[in-house]
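so my prof wants the structure for this chain in the tokens format not the other one, which i didnt know existed until like an hour ago. anyway here's the sequence
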Amino acid sequence: MAINIILTSGGVVAQPAQSLDTLGLLLTPGRPFSSDISQSNLQARLDKSIKKLNKVKNRTGLSKRLVSAVKNELFGEYLKEYMAQSSFGETISQGKYDCLTSSILYAYFFEQLGFDYKVYELNYHLYLLINLEKKDILIEPTAPLYSILINQKDISNRIEEYISTNKEQLDKYYENDYEIHKPASFDQLIGLHFFNLGVRSFNVQNYTAALQLTHKSKNLYPNERTKELEALCIAHIMAKDPEEKKPLSVAQ
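here's what i got, hopefully its the right format
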């Protein structure tokens, strides 16, 4: 049985996969990013979308047409304006999204519909691959148009482009001196969401909020970046004078 993690007021608790309080975690990361949208209202909204998409699934099965229907539903109902380091609450309430919050929504829908998919994490971006009829379909999560690639050569070229762009950006930002390109689980996407918001708080000098968000990220997805951000936050809170560094950045 798969085990997931739930954050509670008392710490971290292992739970069966179906018990993961996904929406609660995403909507209430902590001040100033917690949403005023209730979890029940969001669930009802998502359920309405899934019901609509299941009608397409009943006609077409797990098909390219259903993938397109998911994309159209997301950009028609949820994803309106690109904004780097968006919170999930901002995505749901204002339509502001980045590659992470849009990937979380894609993953949620694909999971509910039964697709065989993976979300791939790079240092500064994410993308999705769906395995359909023994072939991959690539989803660029931030693009409302031309976001679905089916031709296998086009997919290979796009992935090479992602990797090349990622390498170019590695030396621009402070926190990464190593390359990331690997699948990310849904729990890890939530951890990345906390990390992104921690970086956003750090960059406006709200170091206490940044540290709290980093701890939540670390509980779900411990890695070198969370350790590094945690150390930076503590150094600033303790009124030390860390060496001047380049700005922090995250997947956008």
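also thought this was worth mentioning. Residues 46 and 109 are 9 Å apart (CA to CA).
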